[in-house]
């Protein structure tokens, strides 16, 4: 299946894992990639001996941090053009607006929190660059967020892979649960904005 984390890891291996984490972390066209579920599945594979755990922990951390750094620099240089970009099949202005609302609510710590929110994760570093966040501040939050996300989610998969025998049988429901949980913040933010809009109209 397209973008199935298990199929991606089997097909592209460790290098593919690093490239996907890098792309989803800061390249605006990578927002649709399955970052959370891919890291979790990589941890499961490591528990089964298919992947090297120290290698993927270090590699995913570096890829996540590097992706955000590229996103920040992109935002500094050409990011404002995103706000004028017309909607297409993959890209919608709604994605940028979601990230901007999240950013306005949480400030610099968005760089950490956004790691765990799909779509926002990709656009947050770009908006940090657009907004000219102090570079030293961005780097600090980027290192913390990259570590908590890349290492934390991977280790969670590794821990469950060792804890539960034959966890492969439950992999699809677990991935579906991870995806559902990761979209909760977006849903809450959307409901909040709808209520505010309704009050403003009233």
Could you please describe the fold and organization of this structure?
With 202 residues, this protein is mainly alpha-helical. The protein has one domain. The chain is 74% helix and 0% strand. It has helices at residues 5-26, 35-47, 53-78, 93-106, 110-113, 120-130, 135-163, 171-182, 184-201. The radius of gyration is 17 Å and the shape is globular. The protein starts with a helix and ends with a helix.
What's the gyration radius in Å? 17 Å
Residues in β-strands, percent:
under 5%
Tell me, rounded to a whole number, the average pLDDT: 82
How many domains comprise the coordinates? 1
Helix content: over 70%
Strand element count:
0
Number of H- or I-type helical stretches:
9
Main beta sheet strand tally, sense and closure: none
Termini, distance in Å? Answer: 46 Å
Structural class: mainly alpha
**Gross geometry:** globular
Extract low-pLDDT stretches. none
Q: What order do the helices and strands follow?
A: HHHHHHHHH
Short characterization:
The chain has 202 residues and is mainly alpha-helical. The chain has one domain (5-201). The chain has helices spanning 5-26, 35-47, 53-78, 93-106, 110-113, 120-130, 135-163, 171-182, 184-201.
